[in-house]
Structure formats: C-alpha cells, structure tokens
Amino acid sequence: MQEIGIIMNGVTGRMGTNQHLIRSILAIREDGGVELPSGEPVVPDPILVGRNERKLRRLSEEHGVERWTADPDLETCLDGDDEIYFDSQVTPRRPDALLKAIEAGKDVYCEKPLAGDLDTALEVARTAERSDVKHGIVQDKLWLPGLLKLQRLIDQEFFGDILSVRVEFGYWVFTGHVQPAQRPSWNYRAEDGGGIIDDMFSHWSYVLENLFGRVETVQCLEKTHIPERVDEDGEPYDATADDAAYAIMELEDDVVAQLNSSWTVRVNRDDLLEIQVDGTEGSAVAGLRDCKTQHRSNTPKPEWNPDTPKEHDFYEDWERVPNNREFENAFKHQWKQFIRHVVADEPFPWDFAAGARGVQLTEASYRSADEGRRVAIDPLEI
Ligand SMILES: NC(=O)c1ccc[n+]([C@@H]2O[C@H](COP(=O)([O-])OP(=O)(O)OC[C@H]3O[C@@H](n4cnc5c(N)ncnc54)[C@H](O)[C@@H]3O)[C@@H](O)[C@H]2O)c1
User: Fold this and answer.
1) Is the peptide bond before 309 cis (omega within 30 degrees of 0)?
2) Ligand 1: which of 15, 143, 187, 237 to mutate, most ligand atoms within 8 Å of CB?
3) pLDDT (average), residues 281-294
4) Is the pTM of this model over 0.90?
5) Is the CB of 88 under 6 A from ligand 1?
6) pLDDT over 90 at 284, yes or no
C-alpha cells in the first residue's frame, strides 16, 4: 500500500479540524485511500502542526493520529520526507510558510486566500511555478451540490444567453455581547487579516470565473456596520474590518453579477448562500445543496397592482432540480483530486494562479470602495 505524508499546519483551527482533517483526510483514510488511475490506492498519512501543544495532543488522541508537532514556524517538520505541505493557518501567516515549504521542495496546497495582498500572492504563485512544485488552492464552493446542479444546467445550455447573476450570501454573526460569536474574532480585525471582502471575494472570484466567465470590472461598497464586538475571552474589541460588502461586477460576454455579502443580515431565503441566474431561456436559483429552475414556458406574466390582495404564489412557479447522483463533501473531493495530481500527475486547474486572481479581485474591490469608483481587472501574468 502506498502512503503519502501530509504536513497539516493550522489543523487545530475551525477549517483545519472539521473540513480538512476530519471530513477529508481521515475520511479518505477510512475509505482505504484515494484510488489512482492504475486502481492502486494511496493513503494520506497526516502530521498535525500548530502552535498549541495541548490542543494538538488532544486532537491527535481524539482521532488516533500518531504524528504531531508544535512547530508552526516549520523549523523541523519540513525536513522529513512528507510530500505535501497544507496550510489552513490564519491568512497573514500563510505566504511565509508556503515559501518555506516550496523551498524545501514540498508540493503545496492551502486554504484561500493565498495571501493578504496581490504582490505577495504573485510572489508565492511565481515561486511555486518556478520551483516546479505542484500547487493548489481550496475552491470548495465549486463542489457544493447546489453549484454542481447549476453547472449541469449551464452545460446543457438551459439558460440561453445568461444575462445576470445575483449572489446573496450571509447570516447574522453574533457580536459576542450576549451570546458568543460563531466565528473567530480575527475575522473582524483588519490588522489580523479579517474582513468579509478578504474572506468571501476569493470565493466569488473562482465561482464566477468557473461558472460564468472572467470578472472584468468591480464596483464595491464596504461597510463596518458593527464597530465593537466581544472576543473569545469575553473582552470587547474594536471591529476594524468590513462586515458587509455590496458589489456589482461585469463579467465577460456582458454578464452582470451583483453580490451582497454580509455578516450583519438575518436570513429570509432558502439558504445561507443563494445564487440566482437569469437567462433568455430560463432562470435558476441555487443554494448550498438545492437548485430550482423556471423555464420561459413556465414564466408567469405578473402585472403591478398593489391595490388588490396578492393571489399568485411566485414560489410555485419553480421546479426542483433532482440530485441524480451522490454528492461527496466538497473539501474531500478536492483533496482527492490534489492527491491524484501529486501522485499520478492528473490535471488540477485550481492552482496558485487562480488563488492570485482571487486576491486580485479582493484588492480591486477594496480599492473600488476606497476610491468610490469602478475598477478594471486586468488579466494576470504568472
Ligand atoms: N474554504 C472556506 O470555506 C473557508 C472558510 C473559513 C475560513 N477559511 C480560511 O481558512 C483559514 C483559517 O480560518 P479558520 O476559520 O479555520 O480560523 P481559526 O482561527 O479557527 O484557525 C486558525 C488556525 O491558525 C492558527 N494560528 C496561527 N497563528 C495564529 C494567530 N496569530 N491567531 C489565530 N490563529 C493563529 C491557529 O492555531 C489555528 O490553527 C483562513 O485563511 C480562512 O480564510 C476558508
């Protein structure tokens, strides 16, 4: 049986523990490994890396992972023959760690965003490319069942010409004053890499680019609606980062995307993320798992008349898209593809160049908000 060593840095964090360790790497081990094109399995063998010895020991005991080390600065853990370095640390710590791993000849895979600014993201992407190591970035939203159904509709040309895309993302993140917040406090401090634009626009970049086409311009308004929050220790702190962003983007082929991203909104829709696509032949609304459609032949002909009671239920005009298949956890699915990329050289287009484009869109959106104008996004050379 072939094994592949994976150095997992930041594994005690929310994403590192739940999505990457438990639902991906350990789940793949339970399945008996990733099947290579030859039919042979390759089994991931993780080493847990982080700052806090106590947390690492507990995590390793809870999940029966033998190898762990409190070596977040990678003083020694890059010396061994583990092939892959994975990073889900807080974003500001990522670029240096990736550069060290690349220098040590590791193939590198990481959470988004690739870096906090475009120059650094380009440096990391170019170094990885020049060093001939394999590189990949998490783009989990592409494998959400709802988005896979949307992709299926696009592939079968359901929409005709796509006119516009509306992304509604968000939910109420508690401020911590009465009930504890459900997200880490660094998300609300700009100086620690927080901000909803920093967090979400790297997702919007690959979602838009993969499903609808390249983003050509962005006009964005950012807000910090709630200026004070309470942290994990019950201490009040200044929320310096944006907690909501309202953007309009122009995509290739004249498609317009509007995106509301907010941690200060209460949900009155089917899901935490909803993407509505309107086309000449039909429309669809995708959530995290479900997707519904309305063909032009089922489209009602509403007339504006607020003087009479509403008789038509607009929700009834939509049809559910069936599953027709099993859906795997999105993070696990992408991990399997990255491992096959490393071991069997299978294609893996979700690389650091795509990661850098995510940071480019993020940076352009902040610039648009600062300068109060529409910003063009030029194609990136890696
Ligand atoms: N793909 C996604 O959907 C998704 C969702 C949320 C977060 N993320 C990304 O994952 C990364 C981690 O986010 P998270 O929500 O798991 O955060 P988290 O705070 O729960 O975990 C952060 C990890 O980094 C480590 N760390 C190192 N230095 C730190 C410092 N100075 N302060 C705090 N932690 C430090 C922590 O020990 C921990 O292991 C971020 O880069 C974030 O952008 C991705």
Assistant:
1) no
2) 15
3) 98
4) yes
5) yes
6) yes
